[in-house]
Amino acid sequence: MESIPYTxxxxxxxxxxxxxxxxxxxEQQCQRVLRCTEQDLANGPGGLRLQDRPSIRVSWAxxxxxxxxxxxxxxxxxAVEMGARLNTPLPGHDMDLFDNxxxxxxxxxxxxxxxxxxxxxLTPVQAKRVGSxxxxxxxxxxxxxxxxxxxxxxxxxxxxxxxxxxxVIMALWGALGAFMVRNQLDTMIGCASVPMLHNGVVCGDxxxxxxxxxxxxxxxxxxxxVRPRLPLPIEHxxxxxxxxxxxxxKGYLRLGSKVLGPPGWDPDFNSADLPMLxxxxxxxxxxxxxxxxx
Length: 294
Known about the structure:
Layout: E1 6-8, E2 14-16, H1 17-21, H2 24-43, E3 56-60, H3 64-81, E4 103-109, E5 115-122, H4 124-130, H5 134-138, E6 139-140, E7 151-159, H6 167-182, E8 187-195, E9 197-198, E10 201-202, H7 205-217, E11 227-228, H8 247-254, E12 258-259, E13 264-266, E14 271-279, H9 285-291
Parallel strand pairs: 7-8
Antiparallel strand pairs: 1-2, 3-4, 4-5, 5-7, 6-11, 8-14, 9-10, 12-14, 13-14
């Protein structure tokens, strides 16, 4: 199935995203994010020098071959690099039933043309068509019912190992922000993964320790709490480890995201998944300036 990106207006009508992507406003927002990222990386420790950093392009997949490129990157990161056991109908590709209902956001290295970063985005209209979100398969999201009409699900986020200097994920976030504003959507949800491997041993102690930290500092109001369908047995794990959350989770928390409840276990990816939610209204002012043009 060829993926033809679209956007939705406030009434849920489908619009052609190709037209919007060509608009100067979208391009200006993406370029502003890229410039901001280069400045941050140039000033930050360990960042690549500007002359060494590749030129990147942000776009929505418009054809099946572009979706396949994103799925190959996902397979490389999740299966080859992280050891996920993926039941996929096409060797070398991470695929599931949600892919044909999602829009796929890509970052490409303009020099090589290679897809180096991706997100998939499930819009409210498409979530209704498929019957659920991916997060619904891992958590009972009953308490989020009132949010669904303006809520998108983000998933399958990954960046190629040679490009994890910050610029790629910032470019993805900038394009996502533009998409949300353009379509008058205000809430994002997703499952943020914590690896189960610690010091060469597969266990849930790291996830339990990270849950202890974020529960104290970033727990959502009780009206948004959700329950995992396959809970991680937190009460039987060591939650006292002095560990930091993965970089992506730390980034989400800096952007104002909240954790909706304890982690669930994803046996296919052998990870503990934290349910997370972000309202655009909670985005700190310094990030609103770059991502939402406000």
